[in-house]
Amino acid sequence: MLISIVHDSGWGHTARQAQSVAEGAREVAGVQVQLIAVSEGAIPWDVLEASDAIVFGSPTYNGSPSARFKQFCEASTKPVWNDMKWRNKVAAGFTNSGAQNGDKLHSLISMALFAAQHGMLWVGLDLKPGNDSSRGSVHDLNRLGSWLGAMAQSNGDQGPDDAPITSDLETAAHLGRRVAETVRRLQPA
User: Fold this and answer.
1) Pairing assessment for the beta strands 121-122 and 64-65 based on DSSP bridges
2) Does residue 3 contact residue 51 with C-beta atoms inside 8 Å?
3) Contact by Cβ (8 Å): 87, 131
4) 143 φ/ψ angles, rounded to the nearest 5 degrees
5) What is the C-alpha to C-alpha distance for residues 168 and 127, in angstroms, rounded to an integer?
6) Which one of 22, 57, 62, 152 has the fewest CB atoms closer than 10 angstroms to its CB?
7) Are the C-beta atoms of 173 and 23 separated by less than 8 Å?
8) Strands 90-97 and 32-37, sheet pairing
9) What is the span of the domain harbouring residue 68?
């Protein structure tokens, strides 16, 4: 089973989140993970076509995915969308911003709509929101309360060695496991 993680990362924070998604997916037996950074230029469309799932990740800038991530989406038209090569593949998404909210939901909605236009099957988080009671804390999984995908927050004055915090990375790993487990359930016996 091959899971590809296509992501952009302006400062390294979202790349850490991508690594966590990969680590979570690798916890499921038989999973191979391919990390694909859109900033590296050439997109391996053949690898994505061979993937059982594609997880999309981007920082949220000005309330939407990064320009490089959007360029990747637009570039998918000719090699992929015209022939619906990703139809029925599992898809999921994650995003990171400097602000607690940062309008990250808009980025996840953009990714889910992109996946829908390719005929993909979207997988969200199956976690209740963390840090939503007097007994909660920032150390809870899904502390930012998202269902559509994994969200993370990185303080603007901290580098990728210090942010995002562990609970956000563990939430991303949970998403990776969930994607891998979903692909496993959908495969014929």
Assistant:
1) unpaired
2) yes
3) no
4) -60, -20
5) 12
6) 62
7) yes
8) unpaired
9) 2-186
Looking at residue 30, the DSSP 8-state letter turns out to be T
Rounded to a whole number of angstroms, the CA Rg of the chain reads 15
Domain count for the chain, please give it: 1
CATH of the domain at 26: 3.40.50.360
CB 181 within 8 A of CB 156: no
> pTM of this prediction?
0.97
User: How many residues belong to the chain?
Assistant: 189
CA distance 174 to 63: 24
pLDDT digits (tens, 9 = 90+) for 111-120: 999 999 999 9
The whole-angstrom separation of Cα 104 and Cα 1 is: 29
SS3 of the chain: helix, strand, coil, percent, to 5: 35, 20, 45
Task: Give the residue ranges of DSSP H helices in 78-129.
Answer: 104-117
**Tens-place pLDDT, residues 117-172:** 999 999 999 999 999 999 999 999 999 999 999 999 999 999 999 999 999 999 99
Per the listing, tokens 């989140």 go with 17
Tokens of 37: 């950074």
